[in-house]
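pipeline/complex-builder :: batch 7 item 3
reading input block
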Amino acid sequence: MEVWQEIAKNAERGAERLVAEYGDRLYAAATLLCRNNSDAEELVFRTLAQAVGKIRQFKPSGDFFSWLYTILLNFHRMELRKNRPDLVLVGSPQDLPQIAAAGNDAAAEEMREMVRELPSQIRETVVLKYFSGMSIEEIAAALGIPPGTVKSRLFNAKRILADRFRQTGQKGQGNE
Amino acid sequence: MSDEELDAAIAERFKAYEAGIRLPGEFKGRFIGSVRRKRMLRRLGLLGLIGAMAAVCVTIAGFAKRDFAYGDARPVLMARTAPTNETVQVSYLMLLGYLRECFSRSRPARRKEEE
């Protein structure tokens, strides 16, 4: 049974499976869109709650992750439109070590910085492309934009990211 | 770096990033709890709605003009009439009808009738 069928049949069991199968990937995407991990967590919570509540609106012919991502994007855009650039949800003190951690998290933090530097619309397209592995046409359908616009955004994103990779590579060589 | 190589490098970075990110441990419990609460509230709301609709239907039926009690209902009230000290069996619908009359008749008329 697919996860959306399970949610429609039994919301609680379906919700458990939804978190297990899609929660981490959605959270990873959210951390690249949001300013901090607390916002990302709240965004994922609202997205999954909406998905469970409106599961009958999902068309089985489509990709489930892209449907979830569309919901996530809509909530994210709503927050941006509210114009709360200084929004930081009151989190627990455990959030601070999460943001300041070194080691493995340094690479993650670098990745977040690189993606967050991208313009907002390009960032949304790039995150969907590399988290879902969808084709240009599928991404265009999911975001409601022409395929040409998707290609143009991805082209610009690659140009910016290539510059960043080059800078990071040079910085790494300089440190050695 | 060719376009394909760049694409592969970016995809690799995203893959590594995704592999290293996990939702906080308490998220699942919090989310499932929220789903459970919403489901309970929805059920309570539905029960309340059904109860309210049933009450409205009974009230409307009770206020409907009837010359006789509907069906052969069991009496819910044994009313003792003052002058004759007889008992009267009153069904639920008749009780509603009496209540309606109490509010529709004027007080002097009622007092006169009781005398």
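note: Residues 86-103 of chain A have pLDDT under 50 and may be disordered.
queue -> next item
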